[in-house]
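User: Is it possible to get a 3D structure for a protein together with its bound compound? The compound here is S-adenosylmethionine. I've pasted both below.
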Amino acid sequence: MEKEMYWSRFAEDFEARNTYVVGDKDLQVLKNYLAGQKNLGQTLELGCGNGTYSKILAKKAGKFMATDFSEEMVLTSRFRLADHKNICVSRENCLDLSFGKSSFDTLVMINLLHVISHPEKALAEAMRVLKPGGRIVIASFTTQGMGFFSKAGMIYRYLRTYGRPPGSGRTLTLEAARDMIETAGFRLEDSRLIGNRCKIIFMVALAEG
Ligand SMILES: C[S@@+](CC[C@H](N)C(=O)[O-])C[C@H]1O[C@@H](n2cnc3c(N)ncnc32)[C@H](O)[C@@H]1O
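Assistant: Yes, that's possible. Here is the predicted structure of the complex:
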């Protein structure tokens, strides 16, 4: 699978690569927003990568399932998160989850919605596995709202670090993300662009069912 191979190559040092591309300060902005989430309950993270954000979110959760479809990402996360007793790491394709209906209180997607080919399918799966009234937390880097030089610099650092992304490499905008979430049946509680030089779409919504 082309996309799986693409991400797997970066499993070992994914957090360091992202820090180079985006910068410490904007990553910290995202981490602060995630740390501000409360009472997550039973939580499922899709596309967890090498677990950068799992450890922050798991502090606010009951049982925390961190999942990714890349075997290498799963193995690296399992190693990096071994000390966090409420975290379990497993392999899942966000487009076809193995969990039953209404299994989770909260579902998290960080930097996933803009890299998958069928985001609407992932959101339909999210709605299925969330309990009625459950919460979805989404964050995705975007070039929307970035200044010309910041954008050019970030694209240069991205290509230098990761090469060309598979698929369309489209830019997700806040408006398009809101539309997707509402079309999938979620009610938006919060949606905004955060970050300084680099921008991040940040959204919290409830599963209306
Ligand atoms: C841009 S990385 C983000 C990783 C992590 N959430 C972060 O922000 O550091 C995207 C991740 O999604 C995973 N991924 C891509 N398509 C997926 C799918 N269909 N199901 C599950 N994970 C997927 C990749 O393996 C990769 O680890």
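The chain has one domain: 2-207. Residues 2-207 form a domain with the Rossmann fold fold (CATH 3.40.50.150).
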